[in-house]
Amino acid sequence: MSSKEILIDNPIYFQNRELSWLDFNARVVEEANDPANPILEQLTFLSIGSSNLDEFYKVRVAGLQDQQKMGVEEPDTKKMWSPKKQLQEITKKNRINVRRQYDLFDLKRKQLNEKGLYFKSVRELNESDKNKARAIFEREIKPAITPYGIDAYRPFPHLSDGVLHLFVKLKRSGEPFIAIVPVPERLSRVYAVHNNEHTYLLLIEDLIYSFLSDLFKGYDVTYSFTFRITRNADLEIQEEGAEDLLSAIEDYLEKRKNGMAVRLEIDRRESAVSVNEDVALLKKALSIKQRDIYTLNGPLDLTFLSEVIPLLKEQGITESFKPFKPSYPSELKKQSVYSLARKKDLFFHHPFDAFDPIISFVREAAEDDRTVSIKQTLYRVSDDSPLVEALKNAAKKGIQVTVLVELKARFDEANNVHWAKELEEAGAHILYGVKGLKTHSKATLVIKKETDGFRRYVHLGTGNYNEQTARLYTDMGLITSNNEITQDVFDFFNYLSGYSDQPDYHYLHVSPFDIRDAFIENIEKEIKLHTRYGNGHIIAKMNSLTDKKMLLKLYEASQAGVKIELIVRGICCLIPGIPGISENITVRSIVGRFLEHSRVYYFYHNGEENLYLSSADMMTRNMIKRVEIAFPVLEPLLKSHILSILKLYLYDNTKAWILTSDGLYKKASLSDKAVHAQNELLSISSEQEKVKENPPSSNKWLTYFSALFSR
After folding, report:
1. Residue 564 gets which letter from DSSP?
2. Torsions phi, psi for 643 (to 5 deg)
3. Would 388 be classed as within a structural domain?
4. Does the annotation flag 100 for ligand binding?
């Protein structure tokens, strides 16, 4: 290790992974305060923030708690904090974040009041409306309720992950009793009561609370409060010795329902008395620390706001993002995706470009008698996937179909087990991934026997084969018939399905390890060329940046004078702008209508310009614990087009957050002209649709970008 590396390998120059994630979620929640976002979208961002935080506790916090319980003192590799220290810092920052989230929720409620909609408790209603609320309770809720008493004969009940429960204190003949009432998961969370003037939104827990005496005849209800627990979902899948990974995954899903409690949330709004004794009882029963108890002055689990949106639309509140129609390449209206791919590489930037050509890529192969085989990796697919249907049809027709279904895709395991069984029944050959690794690559290979012999076609992408998320996430992909790349993907699938060492690829870089090695080589080359020519430039766009080796190498490049522009949506453990360390690095995060999901890596190389798209972030798990692909864009026009997209994100001063040298994010400052990258790309897509009969060439696309940048 050089003296320069020793100098930069100091904890003060890095951010903790978990705290950086909390900063990201805070940026998501802050979208609820952006007046440029319509009210329904603001509510959606609050809902997403809660959903994100649930998963964070189930996985990341749960993992740290496990380490602490087992006495593991090994620190994180960046800040060198022990698990205990990390948990303390997480709690400190998260309490601030949650307070902000509920402040914004209160603000949204007031804004809805101005539109004639009110979140109300039953006790705030007049008698007529209370009767309507009782009718809802009697008809739609009460038949599904099962109260659980707690005494010598009725043990403390199992409390399901994420489910709302009411803790009820009762009294009879002066003697106290305790009961717990789970709120049935399959019932609506929100109910509407209408009168001539207003619409009142009632939460199910409040309806149950208001009519608790109906559930405990002969007992007096002293008080009640709502609570919710989050359970550990970071359980280890026992692959070692598993004869059938499918069965192992199904066992794992059952065990996950009973993971240890990692968080307890309490809604104190309806309880005027102290509940400390009751919380202590729950704390003991759940073996949870005080650190992980959140007492909130508002409804628990704000994901219910996604359920509110349809109700608001029924009341005429329709302010949401303007619908858009993704651009469909007009060339593909006149010829098949395969005919066009024989002539040139096809680039797609979703959701601005339609995902339909990717579906057609598989469907047309399934319907073509010349198709010999189709091979595809599936990580997360939709519940009603047209791609899976096409693969099933191909298998039934006798086409050799090989599908790697990643059963270990967290929180999609059950869905993937279902599709694996369906595909297998249709006659497809199913692979469950690689032992000890998750296969996160996005690749499809089609082999056809055409008049001039066998020909291979490939789709490679940065995002999942999921037509639903392709309208919500930004991702990039390429369809090509390039001989070397298609040979690489052919070798890649044979490596997955058979027994062999990693192949020697022409162009692909495949993790574990090879992507990191390739990127380090590219950075070292950029340093060397910059030393000679003084024009070093790296641009990288990704979801997260955590890998220590990559961080150190980027610091080294900055010290050498290389200009480094990073677009990192989520976690970033690097701190830019530190004199002598990272003063040549800038970091920005884009949070907007679409989830920024594409991964792009660009190295100037004195004009040689290497540009890669990848399924991998610069995270250690992507570099050494997953099967990932990074692939180059070879055609100069496509390379320039993608570089223009990157530059557009670098000009964004509307949705961008800038990471400062003190480790804090601040909103980008507006210049004379506001630039909103996602909106600009939507405008380009819209223009493309308007001139479908006379589509612009790639050169005209670049002319558009040049005009935009010249502003």
Report:
1. E
2. -60, -35
3. yes
4. no
Looking at 315-324, 359-368, 409-418, 671-680, which range is the least confident one? Answer: 409-418
Mean pLDDT along residues 600-622: 97
Cα three-residue angle 408-410-412, rounded to 5 degrees:
90
pLDDT at 189: 96
Across the chain, how many H-helices and E-strands are there? 22, 28
Q: Are residues 657 and 699 in the same domain?
A: yes
pLDDT of residue 699: 56
Domain that holds residue 591: 509-709
CATH code, domain with 120:
3.30.1840.10
pTM of the model: 0.93
630 membership: H or E segment, kind and range: strand 629-632
On whether 52 is known to bind a ligand per the annotation, the reply is yes
Q: Are 665 and 656 in contact, with CB atoms under 8 Å apart?
A: no
* Lowest mean pLDDT, pick from 248-252, 504-508, 593-597: 248-252
Residue 106 CB neighbour total at 10 angstroms: 12
In a domain, 433, yes or no: yes
Measured from the Cβ of residue 121, the count of other Cβ atoms closer than 10 Å reads 16
Q: Choose the final residue of a domain: 463, 497, 531.
A: 497
Q: What is the pLDDT of residue 696?
A: 44
| DSSP-assigned beta bridge partners for residue 431 | 404
Average pLDDT over residues 448-453: 92
The verdict on whether residue 410 carries a ligand-binding annotation is yes
Average pLDDT of every residue of the chain: 91
Rounded CA gap, 150 and 31, in Å?
A: 43
Domain count, the chain: 3
Domain boundary (314, 349, 372) is at 314
Question: Is 154 labelled a binding residue?
Answer: no
Kind plus residue range of the DSSP H or E element containing 39: helix 39-56
> Which H or E run includes 665?
strand 665-667
Domain shared by 103 and 235, yes or no: yes
| Domain-embedded: residue 321 | no
Q: Which DSSP category does 140 fall into? A: I
- Within 13 Å, how many C-alpha atoms sit on residue 401's CB side? 30
Per mean pLDDT, which of 20-34, 183-197, 437-451 is the most reliable? 20-34
407: domain CATH number is 3.30.870.10
Ramachandran angles phi, psi of 455, nearest 5°: -135, 140
- Whether residue 569 is annotated as binding a ligand: the answer is yes
Burial-class residue 199 by CB neighbours within 10 Å (0-12, 13-18, 19+): buried
363 and 296, same structural domain?
A: no
One domain for residues 491 and 513? no
User: Rounded to whole angstroms, how far apart are CA atoms 172 and 219?
Assistant: 5
The H or E element spanning position 372 is: strand 371-378
624, 519: one domain? yes
Sign of the Cα pseudo-torsion (184, 188, 192, 193, in order): negative
- Whether 572 has a pLDDT exceeding 70, the answer reads yes
Residues with a known catalytic role: 440
Asked whether residue 375 falls in the same domain as residue 450, the answer is yes
Same domain, 73 and 163: yes
Tell me, yes or no, whether 320 lies in a domain. Answer: no
- pLDDT value for 259: 84
- The pLDDT, as a whole number, for residue 415 is 79
What per-residue confidence (pLDDT) applies to 346? 96
Q: At what angle do helices 356-367 and 386-396 cross, to 10 degrees?
A: 10
- Residue type (1 letter), 159: L
- The answer to whether 193 touches 129, Cβ cutoff 8 Å, is yes
- The Cα diameter of the chain in Å comes to 92
Evaluate if residue 567 carries a pLDDT over 70.
Answer: yes
Mapping DSSP to helix (H, G, I), strand (E, B) and coil, where does residue 72 land?
coil
> pLDDT at residue 105 above 90?
yes
What is the pLDDT at residue 414? 76
| SS3 of the chain: helix, strand, coil, percent, to 5 | 45, 20, 35
Alpha helices in 292-385 (DSSP H): 305-314, 331-334, 337-343, 356-367
| Residue 93 sits in the same domain as residue 184 | yes
